[in-house]
Write a structure and sequence with these properties.
CATH superfamily: Electron Transport, Fmn-binding Protein, Chain A
CATH class: Mainly Beta
Largest sheet: 10 strands, antiparallel
CATH topology: Pnp Oxidase, Chain A
Helix content: 10-25%
Number of domains: 1
Structural class: alpha+beta
Number of strands: 10
Order of helices and strands: EHEEEHEEEHHEEEH
Strand content: 25-35%
Length: 220
């Protein structure tokens, strides 16, 4: 794959292009840190946006769902779709409402979803999903049997047509508002891990593994 993502009329950045990028590695860093994507697609005259767990396998995005879901049935036919992943890093409070904003990192990708049919390939994709969400969990839990594999649709979408947008830093007030007597700055936001809560039916002798007690999302 080339260093940069493919630029097309779909993913061309028009508003605030100075915040944008087509750098593939930067896009992958944002995707690798996230947990949930939102997949958008059209069915007839209706538009749907569905939150989904996902993972990146090289230059491919992997998503999964039930074989009975409308999303899986529709996307597996190869229709056009878009996928968005966003990290909200802070609330930017400017002196004026108009200049107030958010600090964020986002990737929007476009492509066609295709269902994985081969069982071994599906298992590898599910392993990638599990390890993306909780590294170390795949080998430490019961893996899917044939019936469960059959009940699960795994979709893949090549990461070729996508764009990045990022905002960082303090407010950017107009000069005329700089003396307005209100606090201006950034309220940082981040995902934090709480104390693990055991299943109440679990034997008390089973202690949480290190990947649970020290869980954190990757950052680059």
């Amino acid at each position: 794959m080339t260093a940069d993502l493919k630029q097309t009329p779909k993913n061309k950045l028009k508003r605030l292009p100075e915040r944008g990028s087509y750098d593939r590695e930067k896009a992958y860093a944002i995707l690798d840190e996230g947990l949930i994507c939102h997949a958008g697609f059209a069915m007839g005259e209706d538009i749907f946006v569905i939150p989904m767990a996902y993972a990146r396998m090289g230059d491919v995005l992997v998503m999964h769902g039930s074989v009975a879901s409308r999303l899986a049935k529709t996307l597996s036919t190869g229709i056009n779709m878009s996928v968005c992943v966003t990290h909200l890093d802070g609330l930017v409070l400017a002196r004026s409402q108009f200049e107030s904003s958010m600090n964020y990192r986002s990737v929007v990708a476009f492509g066609n979803a295709v269902a994985i049919i081969d069982e071994d390939e599906k298992n590898q994709a599910l392993k990638a999903l599990t390890e993306h969400l909780v590294p170390g969990r795949w080998s430490d839990s019961r893996q899917p049997n044939r019936k469960e594999l059959g009940a699960t649709t795994v979709l893949t979408m090549p990461l070729q047509e996508a764009s990045i947008k990022v905002r960082t830093g303090p407010p950017k007030d107009l000069e005329k508002d700089m003396d307005f007597p209100s606090w201006a700055g950034v309220v940082p936001l981040k995902v934090v891990t709480g104390t693990p809560i055991p299943d109440p039916t679990q034997d008390s002798s089973v202690t949480p593994p290190e990947y649970v007690t020290n869980y954190q999302r990757p950052t680059r």
